[in-house]
Amino acid sequence: MAKDYKKLLPSLDMSRLPRHVGIIMDGNGRWAKQHNRPRLYGHSAGAKSIRQVVELGVELKLQYLTFYAFSTENWSRPEDEVRGLLKLLRERLIKEIPELNQQNIYVQFIGSEIHLEPEYLAEIRAVAAKTHQNTGMVVNIAFNYGGRLEIIEAIKKLKPEDIASLTPDNFGHYLWTKEQPDPDLIIRSSGEKRLSNFLLWQAAYSEIYVTETLWPDFDKIEMIKALQEFQSRNRRYGGLN
Ligand code: IPE
Ligand code: IPE
Ligand code: MG
Prior knowledge:
Layout: H1 5-8, E1 20-24, H2 28-34, H3 39-60, E2 64-71, H4 79-102, E3 106-110, H5 118-129, E4 138-145, H6 147-157, H7 160-164, E5 185-188, E6 207-210, H8 220-232
Bound molecules: 3-methylbut-3-enyl trihydrogen diphosphate (IPE) (2 copies) and magnesium ion.
């Protein structure tokens, strides 16, 4: 069963895969409700889906994957859910390090420092730094991330002499995603058709794929379906064919 996705791989054109895929992992709470379990159980279950997508990314040699793990707006959730999410992120990351290193994956956080305990931030950054010798796929964890805040923080970094030479092409260098290509594809699970403050600047020409599947049910087959759909799109960038 787990190997079934292999049958779908020949349907993909390996020369036209997205360089960068962003994923809005939504629906953990609804999944937990369906299973009569607390919301945090849904968040835990969602971690397995991340592993599946990462493994497929390695197999397909994708260059960048960005997972939206916690938004600047998610602080408005009940305190125990927020605390549970922070704890889960730290624990999963620590647990995954050996496998991430084995797969040559570079992990980094993109997001704000605000509201985070300095010790917590230092710890998760130190854990992610254990992958910084790796040269393969880059995995961004968008954590305490908000697109509007990212843009404002970028503006605050600008020196007066930078402003005169600012262009839509070079502004990206001041963002948390710095030298990375913009996402070609943004996937959102659980049916919601919005960006919820995810990669606002970078998503200008991203193809958007929404699936009804709730995040804990998202797997390699779902990811391949998203990539198939991506390859059927006609990206015009405002021009003509
Ligand atoms: C996504 O699942 C995870 C985070 C936002 C951290 P949700 O927790 O938003 O799940 P739903 O939308 O309530 O189902
Ligand atoms: C977006 O999901 C944020 C993450 C996946 C981390 P939300 O569940 O927070 O988004 P809304 O509230 O439905 O817009
Ligand atoms: Mg949600």
